[in-house]
Amino acid sequence: MKNLNKILLETFVAHRPVRALLLSTEILGVTRIVYRVPEESPLFRRGDGEILELPLDKTMARWVLEHGSWQIEDINFVAAHAPKQPLVLLDVGAHIGLMTRQLMHLLPDIAAAVCYEPQALNFAILSRNLAHLPNCHLVQAAVGSMSGRLTFYEDTQNTGNYSLSIESVRSREYQVSEVECVRAHDGEFLNRLPSETAHLPIIWKSDTQGFDEIIATSLSDDFWSRVPVALMEISRINRATLDVTRLSSILGLFPIRRFSTRPELLSVEEILRYAHGSDGSHQDLLLAKG
Question: Is 78 left (phi over 0), alpha (psi -120 to 50) or beta?
Answer without folding.
Answer: alpha
